[in-house]
Amino acid sequence: HPLFMVEYAFKKAKKLGKQTVVMGCGVGPLFKKIHQKSLFNILKYTDLLILRDNHSKVLLESLYKGLKNEIHVSLDPAVICMSEYLNRNYFNEKDEPYIAVNLREFPSEYSKEDIGKRVNGQLQRFTQQLCDKYSENNIRLIPMHYFHVGGDDRIFLNSIKLDLECQNLSVQNKPLTLFETMHVFKNAMLNVGMRFHSVVFQTMLNGNNIILDYTEPDKGKIGGFISDVDGNSFYQNRYINLQNMEALDISITDDINENKSFEVELNKLKEKTAIYHSLDNYLS
């Protein structure tokens, strides 16, 4: 339903002669016709459309056969922030080895099926297994979202902590700054990410990470991001889609080697995000 507010704003902007841009966005989940229609109306009043992955372009073209917008595809704008961080070679403190984990309560709006209870149970079981397997290391549950609207991650993370009572498990309850969040993921011996931007951060900054994708199989933003940045199938055995999995098991970490991580090619990232630096060239 929040799409309706954006639809109104874009329509009003065009009446006032303002230019409008949709950038860094994905498409979906859109299960209801009323929401699909609202998106179509938003795009009708959009001067420049930049999607953040190719999956979204394919989905958009399948939903709207008569779409007149030119569809540009880049990466999520957060990648620019990650690139700047990496370029500056910040000093890395020698923390005690730890594993950084971002989980969220499964959002029901991302699936047609009622699978939330099953997925949440699997996430708790996986956390227990993680604590047991890496008993000599601290397991740090790191929120990526601290606001009530959109689901404060700390509620779910603390419920896991209280249920499991693992001695090496902790929750980051004090909000971290952007810089602190990047530092935590950059210096972890292993990362586990579920929220979209935790996956972006962990992939770009560290590369030794496991991805738990809660979005739609073959359509969601997490799968779309990995598909666009991972040309060598590095994440083939480090990726699980939570919607179609049979079980989430700690065995996914068996072949993880701290010395083998995803290689970020900054020059290619710069090319893929160039459109954000030259918006004036695309607007009249």
Can you describe what's shown?
The chain is of the alpha/beta class. Helix content is 39%, strand content 12%. It is built from ten helices and nine strands. The chain has helices at residues 2-15, 33-44, 54-63, 78-87, 116-133, 153-164, 178-186, 196-205, 221-229, 266-272, and strands at 21-25, 48-51, 71-73, 98-101, 138-141, 169-171, 190-193, 209-213, 239-241. The strands form two sheets. It has a six-stranded parallel sheet with strand order 6-5-4-7-8-9, sandwiched between helices. A three-stranded parallel sheet has the order 1-2-3. Strand 7, helix 8 and strand 8 (209-213) form a beta-alpha-beta unit. Helix 1 packs parallel to helix 2 and helix 4 (78-87) runs parallel beside helix 8. The longest helix is centred in the middle third of the chain and has 18 residues, at 116-133. The mean pLDDT is 90.
Strand content: 5-15%
Structural class, by secondary structure, is alpha/beta
Average pLDDT works out at: 90
Radius of gyration in whole Å, from Cα?
Answer: 20 Å
Instruction: Provide the low-confidence segments as ranges.
Output: none
| Main sheet record | 6 strands, parallel
Strand order of the largest sheet: 6-5-4-7-8-9
The best one-word shape is globular
Number of strands: 9
The oligomerization state is single chain
